Amino acid sequence: MQWTLVIPLKPLARAKSRLADTAGDGLRPGLALAFAQDTVAAVLACAAVRDVAVVTDDVLAGRELAALGARIVPDTPASGLNAALAHAAGVVRATRPDGPVAALNADLPALRPGELARVLDAAAEFPRAFLADAAGIGTTLLTAAAGRELAPEFGAGSRAAHRAGGAVELPLSAVDSVRQDVDTGEDLRAALALGVGPRTAAAAARLLIPGQ
Ligand SMILES: Nc1nc2c(ncn2[C@@H]2O[C@H](COP(=O)(O)OP(=O)(O)OP(=O)(O)O)[C@@H](O)[C@H]2O)c(=O)[nH]1
Ligand SMILES: C=C(OP(=O)(O)O)C(=O)O
């Protein structure tokens, strides 16, 4: 099964505000870009993935992620994460209506291609499915089979929202790298412990993180 992944990324200057106590204003945009680069590189190395669309209005991120091989879809004027994802899924479906689509967060710097392949293979059994994040409150991945709407409900409490909306929660173990999103300094330490990609490793080395 060959998936198209849709990855949302807001403008880097506004990204990762909950990391403000870990990374100052001068370093945070670069850290957010590094997360996205390592996420996209791991996705493109996944055998189950056919292509990647990043929905973003950030010019620098768009250029850097296109250089890795992602298609860039400009954000929709309707603001917000779910509007951006629904818009990008529609753009993808316009050119490829018969393929499965998955939305994946851009902040998974420890992502391993083999673990992502296991998650996507499991999701292929269901019309819509999702993977809960490491905290057990949110979602890192939401999938829709061909012909099904993605119907994203990312945001606070999205695990419960996706379940209530009829998506099947994937009860997988040993896919920590797909669950480990990075919103806080504690999340970043957890991702570093799992092992992050090279761009995040370089960006994190510029931060003073206790225990690193
Ligand atoms: N294209 C697009 N992506 C978005 C938008 N809002 C959020 N995202 C992305 O969606 C994912 C989760 O977003 P958030 O948790 O709201 O933002 P964040 O930058 O990760 O972190 P915080 O600023 O701490 O909330 C991240 O990959 C964001 O870059 C949006 O309006 N448009
Ligand atoms: C948007 C989500 O992630 P985050 O933890 O980055 O807010 C979510 O879990 O639905």
Automatic annotation (TrEMBL):
PANTHER family: 2-PHOSPHO-L-LACTATE GUANYLYLTRANSFERASE. GO terms for molecular function: GTP binding; phospholactate guanylyltransferase activity. GO terms for biological process: F420-0 metabolic process. Belongs to the CofC family. InterPro entries: CofC (IPR002835), Nucleotide-diphossugar_trans (IPR029044). It holds the Pfam family CofC. The gene is fbiD. It catalyses: phosphoenolpyruvate + GTP + H(+) = enolpyruvoyl-2-diphospho-5'-guanosine + diphosphate. Its EC number is 2.7.7.105. Keywords: GTP-binding, Nucleotide-binding, Nucleotidyltransferase, Transferase. This is Phosphoenolpyruvate guanylyltransferase. HAMAP family: CofC. Pathway: Cofactor biosynthesis; coenzyme F420 biosynthesis. Phosphoenolpyruvate binds at T139, G155, S158. Guanylyltransferase that catalyzes the activation of phosphoenolpyruvate (PEP) as enolpyruvoyl-2-diphospho-5'-guanosine, via the condensation of PEP with GTP. It is involved in the biosynthesis of coenzyme F420, a hydride carrier cofactor.
